[in-house]
Amino acid sequence: GVVDVDRNRATYFADQFKIKYYYTDIERAIKNVRPDLISIAVPYKFHYNIVKKICLNKIRPQIIFCEKPIADTVEKAVEMNLLCENSNIRLFVNNRRLTPIYRDLKKVIKKKFDNKVITVNTWCSSGLHAIGIHMIELLRMVIGEIKWVYAIQEKERVESLPFSANFEPDDPRVQAMIGFKNGIVGNFINSALTSFTYFEIEILCRNGKVRVSDNGEKLEYWQPSPPKGSTLSYKLNAPKTIKIASSGTLFAEIASSIAKNIDTGNDHPLSAQHGIESYRVLDAMVRSAKMGKMIGLK
Fold first, then answer.
1. What is the DSSP letter of 119?
2. Which phi-psi region, left, alpha or beta, contains residue 158 (left: φ > 0; alpha: ψ -120 to 50)?
3. What is the C-alpha to C-alpha distance for residues 133 and 135, in angstroms, rounded to an integer?
């Protein structure tokens, strides 16, 4: 079943999958469909109210899969998780942790560079809630948990982007320094000033560097060439490209993971706890930019 505030969109979707649609009536839809899983794919500001409606219903699903970010405040995110726990519902939040290229990125850092990371630089387009949250999630996965942020907000107003249907002009964008608990300090740039989309991570290590570019499609690493006596000869070789093996789309990976790992708790790559912790970082970035000072995360 499908619920939508737009009748035309709802009927089109329902026709594609030969299912029923319910115009805005979530309670009726749950009663009639009795779903095992509910996917929430609406603007993030509505996530809390919808999750609350589901949890207060007498008929409840086993799983809620929620789009990113988990909510529009840390407090709502935490309460959403508690509501689901008290209702015996597993809450999952969309992110890119299961994307094969980022799992391979972690392997390259360990295998080729012995996890000896000096710093990390990231760039992503659109706004913090639209795309930046994905980068925050991946930084936590690849580098480690975040201790503090210091951010400056991008001031120029952008009304729309040619490559994004869900861009919101009021979604903050920032340039930030990020301090990780392991002592690494990195840079985070989230901008809406380009006419093209981008999503890149570059990690500088003690004995080379590794980069994911082409909007998360290309993984390369550089290692030093043997020096030839001159100080100018201490340089990196040409990049080597890692071929990424993929079993299908990211959403296929997500669906399979949820189905197979329902009982892995907070350790699951898509757990609500990961969604909460990543939103804490986003919230800290926004507050830091407003207050003009470093914000620490507990």
1. E
2. beta
3. 5
Spatial separation of the C-alpha atoms in residues 30 and 27, rounded to whole Å: 5
DSSP letter (8 states) at residue 113:
H
d(C-alpha 119, C-alpha 98), whole Å? 23
47-56 and 74-86 helices, crossing angle to 10°: 20
Residues 6+ apart with CB under 8 A from 126: 132, 161, 164, 167, 171, 173, 190, 192, 197
How many other CB atoms are found less than 10 A from the CB of residue 210? 27
Model pTM score: 0.94
Contacts of 292 (CB under 8 A, 6+ apart): none
Residuewise pLDDT in 10s, the chain (298 residues):
999 999 999 899 999 999 999 888 899 999 999 999 999 999 999 999 999 999 999 999 999 999 999 999 999 999 999 999 999 999 999 999 999 999 999 999 999 999 999 999 999 999 999 999 999 999 999 999 999 999 999 999 999 999 988 899 999 999 999 999 999 999 999 999 999 999 999 999 999 999 999 999 999 999 999 988 888 889 999 999 999 876 678 888 898 888 886 666 778 999 999 999 999 999 999 999 999 999 999 8
By C-alpha distance, which of 199, 211, 204, 285 is closest to 250? 199
160: its two tokens: 């729309």
**Would you call 282 helix, strand, or coil by DSSP?**
helix
Write the single-letter amino acid at 129: H
Six-digit token string for 121:
């630089």
Place of tokens 């030969």: 18
In the chain, % helix, strand, coil (3-state, to 5) comes to 35, 25, 35
* Residue 269, C-beta contacts closer than 8 angstroms, at least 6 positions apart: 95, 97, 98, 141, 257
